[in-house]
Each structure stands twice: as structure tokens, then as C-alpha cells.
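TASK: fixed-backbone design
INPUT:
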């Protein structure tokens, strides 16, 4: 029994260390090149996009890297959409029925803008990355929770405000945030600028937790959370 427990602890320890350094032996240059070659591809041809990438790369992590980079370089964040949603959710926070109706209506608008204009907010980024991953046969989840902002730290946020992804590669879960990787928004002009930040691609869970707090604690992927499951 003690031997089995040791194996379980070791297995969870491996899970905790799930981060980009697991793939140090892989050069992502080809994946990035493939992503660039599909620049401007329309979302109405997602099957063509994923098929082209899948047949051009050998490993799952390279395929995921390519679609992650593609999303982050081809989808813009829409600050007006974000501001509208945040304001409405705050106004309706004490009216569950009205909030549900708003969420349902807003989701339709958000997805329409994503597919028609390639503009969205965090939920759209996470949804698209999940969809493209699944078309490649990869297991990807949307993670809902709190994301630190310029104005508020995690412990000052009163309501969930962010969505990101967990991707399963080689039997292990990894964390990433395509929204935060994609670029920056000028809140005065509402203009979005593509400025790719690679640090949020398969980030170390401990670092990720400094700015992201999931509603479902299993997506922390930290040592304390994993040991609590034993």
C-alpha cells in the first residue's frame, strides 16, 4: 500500500510540474511558421485550418502550439464588448433571472462577432481554442474564474471575470491564456494592438495562479491541490 501511495504522489508531482519546459527538446519554429502561413484564414473554414495544420506537424504539442499562435495572431479583443458585458453583469448581479437572460442573448452576439469579424472577449478566445483543439482530436477545456486586472488584484475581485484554457498533452494537463497572449487594448481609444506574449503558453501553474484563480480549484494544478486529492 505504501508503495502504491508513493507512485500516486510521484504521478501527481509530475502533473504539478506540467509546464512548457516539458517540451524543451521541441523547436516550435515550424509550428509558428505553419500558423503564420494560415494568417487571415476565415473561421468558417475551421476544418481546413485544423486539417492543414495537423497534416503539417508531427506531435500534439506542435499542433496545439500552431493553433494557439494562430488564434493569438488572428483574433482581436473587443474592449467595447468587454465593457458592455461587465457593466451589464454588474447591474444585474442581484437579479439571477435577468442575468441569465442577458448572458444567453450576449453569448449569441459574442459568437456572431467572433465568426464574422474575428473580434471577441476572453470567453470567445477560450471557446475558439477549445473548438480548434477538439477538431484536432485534442482534449481542451474552458476554465472560468477570476483574472487579475490593472485596477484590481485577485483578492479584490467580487465576481468571476475571465476565461482561459487547460489543454491535455501526453496525458498531462497544462494551462494557457490566449486572451492575455494576444495583445493589448488602449482603454482610452478602444484600439487593440497585436502584441504576442508567449509567457502564457503552457505557463508554470504556480506562476499562472498569481494572476488567475479558477472557480473549480482542480484547475490550479498546484501541489497543494493535487495532494488534497490523495
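OUTPUT:
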Amino acid at each position: 500500500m505504501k508503495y502504491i501511495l508513493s507512485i500516486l504522489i510521484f504521478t501527481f508531482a509530475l502533473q504539478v510540474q506540467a509546464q512548457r519546459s516539458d517540451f524543451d527538446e521541441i523547436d516550435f519554429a515550424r509550428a509558428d511558421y505553419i500558423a503564420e502561413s494560415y494568417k487571415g484564414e476565415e473561421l468558417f473554414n475551421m476544418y481546413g485550418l485544423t486539417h492543414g495544420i495537423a497534416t503539417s506537424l508531427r506531435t500534439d504539442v506542435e499542433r496545439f502550439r500552431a493553433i494557439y499562435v494562430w488564434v493569438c495572431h488572428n483574433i482581436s479583443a473587443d474592449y467595447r464588448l468587454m465593457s458592455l458585458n461587465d457593466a451589464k453583469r454588474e447591474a444585474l448581479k442581484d437579479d439571477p433571472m435577468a442575468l441569465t437572460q442577458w448572458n444567453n442573448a450576449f453569448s449569441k452576439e459574442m459568437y456572431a462577432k467572433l465568426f464574422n469579424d474575428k473580434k471577441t472577449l476572453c470567453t470567445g478566445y477560450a471557446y475558439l481554442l477549445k473548438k480548434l483543439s477538439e477538431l484536432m482530436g485534442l482534449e481542451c477545456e474552458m476554465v472560468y474564474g477570476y483574472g487579475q486586472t490593472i485596477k484590481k488584484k485577485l483578492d479584490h475581485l467580487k465576481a468571476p471575470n475571465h476565461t482561459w484554457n487547460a489543454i491535455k498533452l501526453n496525458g498531462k494537463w497544462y494551462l494557457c491564456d490566449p486572451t492575455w497572449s494576444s495583445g493589448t487594448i488602449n482603454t482610452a481609444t478602444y484600439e487593440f494592438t497585436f502584441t504576442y506574449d508567449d509567457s502564457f503558453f503552457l505557463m508554470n501553474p504556480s506562476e499562472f495562479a498569481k494572476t488567475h484563480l479558477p472557480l473549480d480549484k482542480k484547475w490550479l494544478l498546484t501541489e497543494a491541490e493535487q495532494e488534497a486529492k490523495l
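COMMENT: Residues 2-227 form a domain with the C8orf32 fold fold (CATH 3.10.620).
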